[in-house]
Please model this.
Amino acid sequence: MVHGPGDVRVDERPVPAPGPGEVLLALEWGGICGSDIAYWRHGASGTATLVHPLVLGHEVAGRIAAVGPGVTGGARITEGTPVTVHPAQPVGDTSLPERLAGRTNLLPHVRYFGSAAFDPHTDGGFSEYRTVPAAQLRPLPEGVSTEHGALAEPLAVAVHAVRRAPALRDRAVLVNGAGPIGSLLVAALRHAGAAHVTAADVAQGALEVARAMGAHDTRDLSEGQELPEDVEVVFEASGAPGALGAVLRATARGGHLIQVGNLPGTPAPAVLGDLVTREITWSGSYRFVEEIDDALAAMRDGLDVTPVISHRFDLAEGARALAVAADPAAGCGKVMLRLGGPDRLQGPDGLGAPR
Model:
């Protein structure tokens, strides 16, 4: 739990009981995201600011430990089933104008695992147990481990970004920023049929991960290497305003730039002239809709996310895990938290107590 800037603790809470329409998850793995780091460092992520202590974590997977009243789903929702979680839950009026039909990621009010956007906050899943509405569960396909299942959420972000671009088959593509999302973008692009994928970053470790995830070429910007020229489709995954000038210059005239990395919510200098003079289409990409299902299918079909995992820590080492994930010198890919093991299923009290 994060209690404030620089203050993260492992707290004890009672094992919750699933209510109507809910299940109790015995969680096994969680992946640390940039928003988790932001809450720990600054007590805020974007415009969401901590008012109360918050359980972090929205990239999680585990097994069903108990099923609450009224839950349907047959064999897919039974005790012991390995699942991941779609972390978004729309709040209030979920109608959208026709032009946004189906784009539920753009609803104005969405509760998200591990988010302080609402008061009370929405606790995340970096815990041994958590109750979850059954509708948010996504059973893992055969052969997909719970560790890999915890990466379905960030892979879904990458898959959604790929779908925000024009047709990619047989195209050359650039990914600027080879952190975990950038490297998963590389994999998603290869899976979508991109002919040639170049990844660029200032960290050699990140570029090694991008190569392992399928990048055909890498550019180490810290060594003075430059971005390729005239790339028709570019994905900006660093979120660094200072990178935008070079990224726009690398985008071909009339090309497409997909902004995946979160840009600051405060004024920041950026060189944007080429956006106009090169008639570039610059599109944002925010979270995902139901692409978590496609991410799971891609992993089932052989997309291997193993190379993006660089560190594993037990839940009790959460503070250290966050520090490593936040350290540019650590050469991190995805830092994973081991939340528990597969032996913690339903106890005799029906509340998922350990046995």
Observations:
- Residues 346-355 have pLDDT under 50 and may be disordered.
- The first strand starts at residue 2 and ends at 4.
- The chain has two domains: 2-155+288-338, 165-284.
- Residues 165-284 form a domain with the Rossmann fold fold (CATH 3.40.50.720).
